[in-house]
């Protein structure tokens, strides 16, 4: 997995085996982990919501029980009067004067004080008696004031004060020991009170109950509902008690939750943003409701979600590290196999791989090693055979060049001997010996460019004897290229063809150029003459003959077979040795001259050649 992705020759995106293996591991890991995480998170969130609802329900029940206890405690105060069997006897004695005074002082006042002093709440008890012979005892509080602000106290009135009141007229029929009503009467709503209403009856005969009075015990709602604290169910929450018609009687907590917040107003709450739980207060018939913001619930569920996500990510991270290690282990083995196959594809069959252990990779490695060894052996055999064949072809082509040149030179020597020009004949023979000494080059087919130019210079010296001042040859060679190697005898045949076929008049000028072509990374030679040139048809004829190019062969040979023979020979030898990208090309125009271009690759020569020719110098010969 050193390279995440590369592009093969086909152009399609290539993903290494290790990456595919790692991705498959991740898919097989991530999907189950997050699926199980999602299921576990859903179960946990639902469980949390159920637990929260259970806790809220339990809290509401505790609040409800606390309220019920306080109301029952207040009712027990009324029981002290309701179930007192001595009360009816005294209250039904309609005797004025001393009897009524004694009853009030000895019985009623102590009894009423006992009741009010027994309460843990602030209460105001009003007793209405049917016996008008008993005196009324009460405090005259100013209009608009709350009597309960004076603390626990009681008042004694005659029953006729309330007989015309609607709340008394609508009071339900008496059921022994059970008829108790909690209701806001008179100014209770104004001062935030609620009253326990109950008859006083003659209990001596339960089957025939006679009303002898009425009890009203008023307490503050805030004291009855003291346990109604929104802080018990969470921040931003509210506890509300609503009466008949959904009107709010009491609330604790976030008052902004209410759209109508005045006491006694109808409850209107945006339930879309809150979770609501309800409990009924049986004694009052009112509803106790808890409103918990969804944001509070969501905040806790977000913590659960975050915890689940962290656990999933940690699990994915840990298992991914393990998966990466496993995939890297196998990808390294596959990468070695791919590396060997790529080297085989490039022609290098020396690469070998070895694995520890005894598995499929070991078998693959052994098979590839054996395949590489056998292929390398076969290639070596084929290579040696082709090399010998190539060398034979080069030697054959080389042998074809030398006799052709030798024939022309011997013809020139013969003419010199015929005309008695012994000195020139001697000089030409010496130059011919030098030429062949350089041409033999100890049997080497590839020589340095320096030696190739030196050999061409030896040929020019031979022809200089023959033509004298009628010919002029100029070398323009880049000194940097003389250290590289070339197939021998690539310049001399073109100079020879120019001297044989390109004369126009009695003079000829030949220029030999050698330079480095940085664009293609090759060496380019050009043999340029100002001779007679060739027609386009002749150039195409030479190009179509398979030579690929020709040079300065404007003249005609003695036969069709010998036309451009030396040019084709050089082109074939270059292509045979260096490949089809290199060779000879020709450009010519009649009456102007010809230009031969020879292209060969840059091949450094041996150190021995460099030391031998460290003083290379290429000049001008004319």
What does this structure look like?
- By secondary structure, the chain is an alpha+beta fold.
- Helices cover 47% and strands 18% of the residues.
- It has helices spanning 17-82, 86-91, 98-117, 166-169, 188-191, 221-224, 294-345, 360-418, 422-440, 449-467, 492-501, 536-547, 565-578, 607-612; strands spanning 123-129, 153-158, 181-183, 193-201, 211-220, 238-242, 248-253, 274-281, 286-293, 446-448, 471-477, 485-487, 508-517, 522-529, 583-589, 593-601.
- The strands form four sheets. The chain has a five-stranded mixed sheet. Strands 11-13-14-16-15 form a five-stranded mixed sheet. Strands 7-6-9-8 form a four-stranded antiparallel sheet.
- It is rod-shaped and about 195 Å long.
- Residues 1-7, 256-261, 545-563 and 608-622 have low confidence and may be disordered.
- One of its GO terms (molecular function) is kinase activity.
- Keywords: Cell membrane, Kinase, Membrane, Phosphoprotein, Transferase, Transmembrane, Transmembrane helix.
The number of strands is 16
**What oligomeric state best describes the polypeptide chains here?**
single chain
Order of helices and strands: HHHEEHEHEEHEEEEHHHEHEEHEEHHEEH
Strand content: 15-25%
The helix content is 40-55%
Question: How many distinct helices?
Answer: 14
pLDDT averaged over residues: 78
| Main pleated sheet | 5 strands, mixed
